[in-house]
Write a structure and sequence with these properties.
This protein is of the alpha/beta class and 347 residues long. The protein has a domain of 236 residues: TIM Barrel, CATH 3.20.20. The chain contains 14 helices and 8 strands. The chain has an 8-stranded parallel β-sheet. β4, α7 and β5 form a beta-alpha-beta unit. The longest helix is centred in the C-terminal third of the chain and has 16 residues. The protein is globular and about 55 Å long.
């Protein structure tokens, strides 16, 4: 490990790369799965007390999802201190306020305070920059996040859907300016989009960044339940006006992936969901996977992915239909919500 000065070691939040990764894995992401419990709160009533004990104890939600049931879960039976609470900042929160969006200092701090009020808690365990932007220099965002950490309102900071070079730039700025550094990235990764294997995952392993995966089932495609003629009309994707979700997902190439997933899952006596999630978690760079569930049966099924093992033959068979580093259905860096252009202003 490279030599580090005593001054650097005393800086708040400093940890050597491997120690930081262990911190993420053992302290923040207690197991290999993060249950998106807001979905359980939304669809399951009354709220089952065992929801918190059967999940990993990580509550992940976006800024617009907080409500009375979310707070009920968060504070149920005095369990707040056993949970890792994360939320994000970036999206527009007020159409009439030009400053109520993005990654500016004002928006980051305002939305942290707003989330704390909504959740009736005094701190966030993880605060994500939800998307990158070229309109705000990264040092402004990091200075605001660093102030929130030092004030005790945020424990750790992270990014979501950033390119590898943008995360690396943030690490450089944190080192140069002695600011709190990003410890995790939330990114799409699945059997239909493996492009993060090229740069993002190796970068994360090299610099001690924890990886949390979103959309691990490609919006339900990898469950094998749906095809172009039976996609549920009440799904989040189908209900989005102007969405080309069906056209992008139901292709001959994606059908080949799903077919092998179904065949292999049957051979191993697994559900396709368990196989698809376990395949992601086998990668040493992945710390956790975000789950979206509608009921406790789905949660039980998905948690079963932690018990799955693969043979070399299993992995080779999946590689044949889903080539390493390639995409069948694009997710990574394929988001109109994000901005991967060079920064307009120097830090």
């Amino acid at each position: 490990m490279p030599e580090t000065s005593p001054q650097e070691r005393r800086r708040p939040g400093w940890l050597p790369g491997q120690s930081r990764r262990r911190l993420i894995f053992w302290t923040l992401f207690v197991a290999a799965l993060v249950a998106a419990i807001w979905a359980v709160v939304r669809f399951v009533s009354p709220l089952p007390p065992r929801t918190l004990t059967m999940s990993t104890g990580v509550v992940d939600g976006a800024y617009h999802q907080f409500g009375e049931r979310y707070r009920e879960l968060l504070h149920a039976n005095g369990r707040r201190e056993r949970l890792v609470l994360s939320t994000k900042v970036h999206a527009r929160m007020d159409d009439d306020d030009p400053n109520a969006a993005g990654s500016s200092r004002r928006h980051i701090i305002d939305q942290c305070h707003a989330s704390l009020r909504r959740l009736q808690t005094d701190h966030l365990d993880m605060y994500y920059l939800h998307r990158p932007t070229s309109a705000v220099p990264i040092d402004e965002s990091l200075r605001a996040l660093d102030d929130l950490v030092r004030a005790g309102k945020v424990r750790y900071i992270a990014t979501s859907s950033f390119a590898a070079w943008q995360i690396l730039e943030s690490l450089w700025v944190s080192k140069e300016l002695h600011l709190e550094r990003v410890i995790a990235e939330q990114t799409p990764y699945s059997l239909v989009d493996r492009r993060v294997e090229r740069e993002l995952l190796p970068m994360a392993q090299s610099y001690g960044i924890g990886i949390t995966v979103w959309s691990p089932l490609a919006g339900g495609l990898l469950t094998g339940k749906y095809h172009s003629g039976n996609w549920p009309t009440d799904s989040r994707f189908a209900s989005t006006q102007g969405s080309d979700w069906e056209k992008r997902h139901f292709t001959a190439a994606s059908a080949a992936v799903v077919r092998v997933v179904l065949e292999l899952a049957e051979q191993k006596n697994l559900s396709p969901t368990q196989l698809s999630l376990a395949w992601i978690m086998r990668h040493p760079a992945v710390s956790s996977v975000v789950l979206g569930v509608r009921n406790l049966q789905q949660l039980d099924d998905q948690l079963g992915a932690t018990e799955v093992n693969f043979t070399a033959e299993d992995l080779a068979r999946l590689d044949e239909v889903s080539a390493p580093g390639r995409a069948v259905v694009p997710y990574y860096l394929d988001d109109s919500f994000a901005d991967w252009q060079p920064a307009q202003f120097r830090w």
